Amino acid sequence: MKNNQKKNTDKKKKISRAFTGLVVSDKMDKTIVVRVNRTKIHARYHKRYHVSKNYKVHDPANRFKTGETVKFIECRPMSKEKRWRVVRGLNED
């Protein structure tokens, strides 16, 4: 093998995405719905506007209730729409 054709044996670590949002529903078992608000800038008019998206997040202990702020990260798929898990609540000390 030539030097420039070495096999890459180093495993690359996947960068997991993390978001912070407000719990808008806790009616499901072990699942909460979290709304994440973002501010975007229009490409042509350079005006700021708000976009929100809801994520279904795994909460195994049913700890978080509606109105709390939580941080969650990406994980393996747990169901059809649930690909996130709670890391911690931000209202806690």
TrEMBL record:
Key words, A-Z: Ribonucleoprotein, Ribosomal protein, RNA-binding, rRNA-binding
**A GO cellular-component term linked to this record:** cytosolic small ribosomal subunit
Highest taxon of the lineage: Bacteria
Q: Name one Pfam family in it.
A: Ribosomal_S17
Q: Which CDD domains match?
A: Ribosomal_uS17 (cd00364)
GO-annotated biological processes = translation
The molecular function terms in GO held by this entry are:
rRNA binding; structural constituent of ribosome
Concerning HAMAP family, the annotation shows: Ribosomal_uS17_B
Function field: One of the primary rRNA binding proteins, it binds specifically to the 5'-end of 16S ribosomal RNA.
Similarity section = Belongs to the universal ribosomal protein uS17 family.
Checking NCBIfam families in the record gives:
PRK05610.1, uS17_bact
Self-association state and partner proteins as the record states: Part of the 30S ribosomal subunit.
Protein name in UniProt: Small ribosomal subunit protein uS17
Origin species: Candidatus Kuenenbacteria bacterium CG2_30_39_24
